[in-house]
Design goal:
single chain, mainly alpha, flat
Length: 32
């Protein structure tokens, strides 16, 4: 189970939204 409330699709949208957001998303994914 994924403790993150975002679905994989949501992560893709966030990653596509911009440099800072994609960097944050990458950091969050790296922590998992």
């Amino acid at each position: 189970m994924d403790p993150n409330p975002l679905s994989p699709g949501d992560r893709v949208v966030v990653a596509m939204s911009g440099g800072v957001d994609s960097s944050v998303t990458a950091a969050l994914l790296a922590e998992q």
